[in-house]
Amino acid sequence: CTDYRTPLPSPECQTDADCPSKMACIKKKCQNPCSLPAVCSPDQECSVLDSLPLRTVMCVCPSDTIASTDGHCMPIVAGEVECRVDSDCRDTDRCARGSCKEACRIDPCGLNAQCASKIHQSICTCPSGYVGNPHIECTFE
Predict the structure, then answer these.
(1) Binning pLDDT at 50, 70 and 90, where does residue 2 land?
(2) Tally of domains in the chain
(3) Which domain holds residue 91?
(4) Distance between CA 24 and CA 29 in Å, rounded?
């Protein structure tokens, strides 16, 4: 008996390190994470940091605006504020609407991912036994 099944195509990538600069391995294909829907709010600028083992997506509001709790950019209101920029806050916090808030609360990780707040950023990782892009979703291996 001859087996005529077509072999499955090889995945383009297994990890972000398999992809070119500014690209991440999403569903086994190298993609720009900023091109995915709803990564950042429409008024934010999305950029990809070439961090490894996982690429990091940053959503940044234009100057003279700050991110609100819902992620949208709002004008900075004059008056008493705790912070104007992230460096005014502790290392684990980010400046949001003039207040220092934990980075993981402002920029949460994807489904099933773990979040650590460091250097004013959310550092997202998939837990042991899970794979995927932790900024989007970690799935059971």
Answers:
(1) low
(2) 1
(3) 16-140
(4) 8
pTM of this structure: 0.47
Q: In angstroms, rounded to a whole number, what is the distance separating the alpha carbons of residues 121 and 117?
A: 6
Model confidence band, residue 61 (pLDDT cutoffs 50, 70, 90): confident
Phi, psi of 67 (to 5 degrees): -80, 130
Contact 121, 110 (CB under 8 A): no
Which has the closest alpha carbon to 133: 58, 31, 6, 8? Answer: 31
4 in a domain, yes or no? no
Q: For residue 79, tell me if it sits in a domain.
A: yes
8 belongs to a structural domain = no
What tokens does 103 get?
A: 């980075």
Q: What is the DSSP string of 37-96?
A: TTSS-TTSEEEEE--SSS-EEEEEPPTTEEE-TTS-EEEPPSS--S-SSGGGS-TTEEEE
Per residue in 93-118, pLDDT (tens digit) is: 999 878 899 999 988 999 999 999 99
